[in-house]
Amino acid sequence: MSFELPLDQIFRGDCIEMMQMLPSGSVDCVFADPPYNLQLRGELRRPDESVVDGVDDAWDKFADFATYDTFTRAWLGEARRLMHKDATIWVIGSYHNVFRLGAIMQDLGFWILNDIVWRKSNPMPNFRGRRFTNAHETLIWAARGPESKYRFNYQAMKALNDDLQMRSDWYLPLCTGNERLRNTHGLKLHPTQKPESLLHRVLIASTHVEDIVLDPFCGTGTTTAMAKRLGRRYIGIERHPDYVEAALGRTQREVRLPPDQLAITPARREAPRVPFGSFVERGELPAGTTLWDRSRRVKAVVTPDGSLVSGQQRGSIHKMGALLTGAASCNGWTFWHMERDGALVPIDVLRTTETALRSAG
Amino acid sequence: MSFELPLDQIFRGDCIEMMQMLPSGSVDCVFADPPYNLQLRGELRRPDESVVDGVDDAWDKFADFATYDTFTRAWLGEARRLMHKDATIWVIGSYHNVFRLGAIMQDLGFWILNDIVWRKSNPMPNFRGRRFTNAHETLIWAARGPESKYRFNYQAMKALNDDLQMRSDWYLPLCTGNERLRNTHGLKLHPTQKPESLLHRVLIASTHVEDIVLDPFCGTGTTTAMAKRLGRRYIGIERHPDYVEAALGRTQREVRLPPDQLAITPARREAPRVPFGSFVERGELPAGTTLWDRSRRVKAVVTPDGSLVSGQQRGSIHKMGALLTGAASCNGWTFWHMERDGALVPIDVLRTTETALRSAG
DNA sequence: GTTGCGTGTGAATCACGAA
DNA sequence: TTTCGTGATTCACACGCAA
User: Fold this and answer.
1) How far does the CA of B23 sit from the C1' of C7, in Å?
2) Domain of life of the organism in this record (chains A, B) (predicted)?
3) In this model, does residue B353 exceed pLDDT 70?
4) Assigned superfamily of A9-268
């Protein structure tokens, strides 16, 4: 049996069983924080459903890895089925499990886009002085397959980083203080609650408003709460009733940001396409006008159909830019300039004016 | 057949076959930079139309993941046989291959101690704006097994990091400039030459003077050269004759530091923003350099872990400044000077560069 | 000598929609 | 499924030459 896709809900149950009931190709993004260690939470079972007990001689270590791998293949396989062709997935782990996660993801056909390092500003020190301070965790960001046309909000990430490309190493604090959920005894409710800043960056980078986000290991609901705040739709799955209760209350209390605060720096490739010829038609750049490159080394003349002519050659603004410079390709909008008050101005200013008019009207 | 262990040599040949001829349990540390199995699909151009010189060498091409895994299991298995019970291994990779490396290492019985992130100060940007800038690579540090009594020079690492525990994220520049080996046409000799600062930290962290270090993918000899400089014994294996020739010459020219400059030591120091040790690692203020006070009344010598030595005394730049002047305390950054073009310049100038400032964040 | 500008380059899985 | 046209896209350094 299979449900219609339920939105903005958090379910209690085994994530593999729950995912099996959801329809294929229905989610835009998955965020998963799977158990890091078999012995910790008793969530792991062998394929025959017997529970793994924690013995640590060499033979059993191998059995543990095999069991962990089986479990990992099962939930990643279901998650992949639920993802539509262009969806992406984030999986977080530490050196205990992340290598198995990554290898299995590759085996299942996921196409890794980046591995992201979450550098903790306040990690726990190494008390025994026998290793380097374990100051980071790793996120694997992957598309469903190599041909996916996945979403990456490049300009938004650049804006988040002082107008420099966002790198693969992120420096963020642990979840502490008021953000950390606690029980009535003041003890932390969940051992590995993720910081909201981490989910903020993940969701802003790889999803759009109204996109559907699935978290199969929902825990205390950082993903669902942040999805709601940022105007994304969410589906959470969590096995432990206490965590489900906390996640439900927390997400319920969360308030969706108003639309004007949800807008991110738009991607230029998604701006409405305006034909160069339309400016010729309207007389804003009449046929006969001469265009130049930035340093006046090459020039061309605008024709009535919006193509350019230079000598015997004729073509679009892009084709002519490439042709005259010998480049493989060329963005004609930024290459060609027109004279305005004696100075050269890129013809792209025509387009930005147009865009402004459209959004205003 | 099997050789006695040959020391301080670089061999040309297939690393699996060569390792098979060496005796079991004979090396203290392995550093391995295996092929990454990048899967580049076409030409990549910068926004200025220049072409990126990608890694297209035959040695990096594998038919599929299964082929790569078979190769990886084979060389890691031989490396493990050569390691004695308490030896450790370093393996470096990127998201293309590191998950497979780590999972296979765990399957073979290695015990992962840390995953280390080499954060590059100057990575190549993402030119098409379709992903996060791939700004790091990952090193896996592992013992031969869970019971290994491995070497970790905790105090030396702490000293190198201005008396703060060394973290799992390391900020180091790429190998560029004079350090990068070039052929007679000025082209890079090896597409992926590793920086000396990386090997410096690896060797200081996990080996002792006279320890035997094996590099099965020796390339142009960064490992062997740094092992010689730091007084370690080395065995290099490399398949490509051009790389072997370069590694031999480079390692030949390298000079072993004198004994008093090789000693590493515990130190208790303050923590300014930029660790003094980072300049030592990067070779901007190499071990062996003599520092003076402003009026050349006292002097001291820089050691590989970033502490100073003068006579029988050893300590941080701050402690040694205080000690040698009889003061209660001292700001080593302004007290100590280095010679530059015959004049004395405070070492604090090292910190004023953009690079230095960034290493803190 | 110093400063500043132009150029080159690094382990890279680097477009996408319409017809 | 394939072809084709449009047009989006770079950061930190090192080095050489000019002012």
Assistant:
1) 52
2) Bacteria
3) no
4) Vaccinia Virus protein VP39 (3.40.50.150)
Q: Is the pLDDT of residue A61 over 80?
A: no
For strand D, is any atom closer than 7 Å to the CB of B48?
yes
User: Exposed, middle or buried, B168 (CB in 10 Å: 0-12/13-18/19+)?
Assistant: buried
The DSSP bridge partners found for residue A91 are A32, A140
Three-state DSSP at A303 gives: coil
Whether the beta carbon of B43 falls within 7 A of nucleic chain D: the reply is no
Which pLDDT tens digit goes with each residue over B173-186? Answer: 999 999 999 998 89
Q: Which residue has better confidence, B200 or B360?
A: B200
pLDDT at A239 over 70: yes
Supply the angle between the helices A222-229 and A196-206 in degrees, to the nearest 10.
Answer: 50
pLDDT of residue B271: 30
Contact across the interface for B99 and A105, Cβ inside 8 Å: yes
Q: Where exactly are the structural domains of chain A?
A: 9-268, 274-360
Whether CB of A319 is under 7 Å from strand D: the answer is yes
3-state secondary structure of A285: coil
CA distance B264 to chain A (A): 16
CB contact under 8 A, B100 and A117: no
Provide CB contacts within 8 A for B78, sequence distance 6+: B15, B16, B19, B20, B216
Q: Which of residues 113-132 of B touch strand D (CB under 7 A)?
A: 121-129
Strand A169-172 vs strand A212-215: parallel, antiparallel, or unpaired? Answer: unpaired
Question: Strands, DSSP E only, in chain A?
Answer: 9-12, 27-32, 83-93, 111-120, 136-143, 169-172, 212-215, 233-238, 290-292, 299-302, 308-310, 313-315, 337-340, 343-346
Mean per-residue pLDDT, B203-208 = 97
Instruction: Label residue B1 exposed, middle or buried (CB < 10 Å: 0-12, 13-18, 19+).
Output: exposed
Q: What is the CATH number of domain B9-256?
A: 3.40.50.150
